[in-house]
Design a protein that fits this description.
Layout (H helix, E strand, L loop, with lengths): L15 H15 L6 E2 L11 H13 L16 H12 L11 E4 L2 H7 L10 E5 L3 H9 L5 E5 L21 E5 L11 H14 L2 E5 L25 E6 L1 H4 L7 E4 L5 E3 L5 E3 H12 L5 H9 L3 H27 L3 E4 L5 E5 L4 H12 L1 E2 L1 E2 L10 E5 L4 H14 L1
Parallel strand pairs: 1-13, 3-4, 3-5, 5-6, 6-7
Antiparallel strand pairs: 2-8, 7-8, 9-10, 11-12, 12-15, 14-15
């Protein structure tokens, strides 16, 4: 008979944001005509910038004739985009990353979930708590239950340290995400350097999710794990255009796997991970579309850089307004300065607070409990919305809270 993958029984039957959507749908059914303001899921609201639109229109025209038509592209991504990424995101920042160490994909979420296919079933994992659910769920689906939760609290600024690891059974892989989802916290270079030093000393691996690096405005905060000495030999980095340039519906991102970065066989033989990830992608993925990649390339033009920065600054302006309003109501808020997320201490049941804001203010947030045990007592608020809606949401919050 056909057997299921029983590891699926070990995860919650409903993904966090599917549960939120279910509750919002039930609320709207009970309250027809209610104007709901969605500050929950981190989906962008502003349109793609003009430089991207122009490039994608031209790419569509390319597909209209034989001379410039593109069918299957290279699974690793077109050279025109990989070279721009290497120059603008890394080399211009003094970071040694080459174009052939970059693999373009349809988004960081997929890559964060798929990367674990490169590792053995007995690999020990560590994640922050609270945590982006994909890191945990994809490993549990693969049969890995040995997951260490690193406590991220107000006391440590929501940034764990290698000193927090247990003396016995230390992990082989650590997921780090900064600026952090969900807390909005950022990590300093010394904090990240400590993890790099630990990983190199243990022959461990850091999986660094930098999906929100474009929101960093504080000088000195690292945009990449590769700003740390020795990171090339112990870290893989994920990047996304979803929040950088509003590509949540277009779908494009990339993963950096440096040459020489290795994992090991049971007898200690080093195996380079870049060829493995290339093999995985060329087998299971046909690449992001030509049209999409031309749009992503346009982000790096002078016009694209200015236009995407302006949009990010707009979202950060939303975050600033909400942060100041919530602080004025007496709430402790993390994030919102170098991140589009605000992590609000509600000092109570996070799902109950979510339901209260939904029912009494028609505002959708994200309950912290959905990100793990340490998220209980918090809600996450997203700054992705129109300025008009954000101002209205603030007035509603003042009326309820």
């Amino acid at each position: 008979m056909l057997h299921v993958n029983e590891n699926y029984a070990k995860i919650k039957p409903t993904y966090l944001f599917a549960e939120i959507a279910h509750r919002v749908s039930a609320h709207l059914e009970a309250n027809p005509g209610a104007k709901v303001i969605r500050l929950g899921i981190g989906d962008v609201t502003e349109p793609l910038c003009p430089a991207v639109i122009e490039a994608m229109h031209k790419a569509v025209d390319d597909e209209a004739g034989r001379s410039n038509f593109h069918g299957y592209g290279p699974e690793q991504g077109y050279a025109f985009l990989r070279e721009k990424i290497a120059k603008f995101d890394f080399q211009d920042r003094g970071i040694d990353i080459a174009a052939d160490e970059i693999l373009v994909s349809d988004g960081a979420k997929c890559d964060c979930g798929n990367i674990q296919e490169l590792f053995g079933p007995d690999v020990k994992i560590a994640v922050g708590d609270p945590v982006y659910p994909v890191y945990v769920d994809t490993n549990v689906m693969a049969g890995r239950g040995d997951i260490t939760l690193l406590s991220c609290t107000a006391e440590n600024g929501f940034v764990p340290s290698p000193s927090d690891l247990p003396d016995e059974g230390q992990p082989d892989v650590v997921y780090l995400c900064y600026p952090n989802n969900p807390t909005g916290a950022v990590a300093t270079k010394p904090q990240l350097q400590a993890w790099v030093d630990w990983a190199n000393s243990r022959k461990a691996l850091i999986l660094f999710d930098a999906a929100y690096e474009a929101f960093i405005r504080t000088p000195g905060i690292p945009h990449s794990i590769y700003e740390c000495d020795g990171a090339r030999t112990c870290a893989i980095e994920f990047r996304s255009y979803s929040k950088t340039a509003g590509f949540t519906g277009v779908r494009c991102g990339y993963t950096v796997v440096p040459k020489g970065l290795c994992a090991y066989t049971a007898d200690g033989t080093p195996v380079e991970l870049r060829p493995m990830w290339t093999r995985r992608q060329t087998t299971k993925f046909n690449g992001a579309s030509y049209i999409t990649q031309r749009g992503a390339e346009a982000i790096y033009s002078p016009e694209g850089q200015a236009q995407t920065k302006a949009t990010i600054d707009f979202y950060l302006g939303n975050a600033k307004l909400m942060r100041e309003a919530l602080q004025g109501l007496g709430y402790t808020v993390t994030g919102g300065a170098d991140s589009p997320y605000l992590w609000v201490d509600v000092k109570g049941d996070s799902w109950a607070f979510f339901d209260r804001l939904l029912k009494e203010a028609n505002i959708v947030t994200t309950p912290g409990a959905g990100f793990g045990r340490a998220g209980e007592g918090f809600i996450r608020i997203s700054a992705f919305n129109s300025r008009e809606n954000v101002i209205e949401a603030i007035e509603r919050l003042k009326g309820v809270l």
